Amino acid sequence: xxKGDYIVTxxxxxxxxxxxxxxxxxxxxxxxxYLVININGEIVDKYKxxxxxxxxxxxxxxxxxxxxxxxxNNHIYIKDSTCKDKTCIKMGKISEIGQxxxxxxxxxxxxxxxxxxxxxxxxxxxx
Length: 127
Known about the structure:
Elements: H1 3-29, E1 33-39, E2 42-48, E3 56-62, E4 65-72, E5 75-81, E6 100-103, E7 108-114
Antiparallel strand pairs: 1-2, 1-7, 3-4, 4-5, 6-7
Keywords: Membrane, Transmembrane, Transmembrane helix
Pfam family, one: NusG_II
InterPro entries: NusG_2_sf
């Protein structure tokens, strides 16, 4: 490779890094976080994660089963479940955007999302 190739490669890497860091900082600071509860692929509840929702238990009942979610010190975890294997209880705690907890037998998915991604807009249509 010639000297110009190294310069172009370095510029591409710097541009990519600056775009990534800008979008990541915007995502974490300008948007509000929500706890989103999905059952069987449909959003059944949504809670804004703020100071008012510090310590709370949420009971999620559906025809597939029952789960108890706990919000404690800005962390969310599944405390109890009616599923047989109890894997969802062992998943641990989540607190950051994009993290999720899943209980497959009860068809439950709990995730932390940003308000701008919760709107019902079409991003892409594939044919």
